[in-house]
Amino acid sequence: MLTNSKNTASTMSDVINFQPKSIFCIGCKNAFIFTTEEQTFFHSLGLTNVPKRCPHCRLYMRMRREGKSTDTLTQLNCCKCGEKTSVPFLPKSESEIFCITCFREFKKVNRKTGAKI
Ligand SMILES: [Zn+2]
Ligand SMILES: [Zn+2]
């Protein structure tokens, strides 16, 4: 996805021009993209470090930490942008699965319906 920076009028002073970063996951040794959306999200949480693990491994670690079975951890492609994503459950239909970026967009748009995935 292309993000153009035609918006030069800076309404917020702390807007940082993030670039997608390719990072090697220390868990599965696969490269993953630390997207600009995620970087913005991390930044909004005040996190300055980059993730060491890919989203799939992060979810895996979280489920382990929470004492959940990781049997249901599923990796598949987002039905909207095709980006790889992981969900902590067995999806009924792959056509309902959004990556976290699209999911946030989806939630923004569908806030009033309270749609859940
Ligand atoms: Zn990984
Ligand atoms: Zn997506």
List the helices and strands and how they pair.
Layout lengths: L20 E4 L6 E4 L1 H9 L10 H11 L8 E4 L6 E4 L12 H10 L8
Antiparallel strand pairs: 1-2, 3-4
Polypeptide structure, described:
The chain is α+β, with helices and mostly antiparallel strands and 117 residues long. The protein has one domain. Helices cover 26% and strands 14% of the residues. It is built from 3 helices and 4 strands; from the N terminus they run ββααββα. The strands form 2 sheets. Strands 1-2 form a two-stranded antiparallel ribbon. A two-stranded antiparallel sheet has the order 3-4. The model has no long low-confidence stretch (mean pLDDT 83).
Ends: how far apart? 23 Å
Put simply, the count of helices is 3
Share of residues in strands:
5-15%
Strand order of the largest sheet: 1-2
The poorly predicted ranges are: none
Small molecules (ligands, ions, cofactors) in the structure? zinc ion
Any descriptors?
117 residues, alpha+beta, two-stranded antiparallel sheet, 4 strands, globular, binds zinc ion
Write a brief structural summary.
The chain has 117 residues and is an alpha+beta fold.
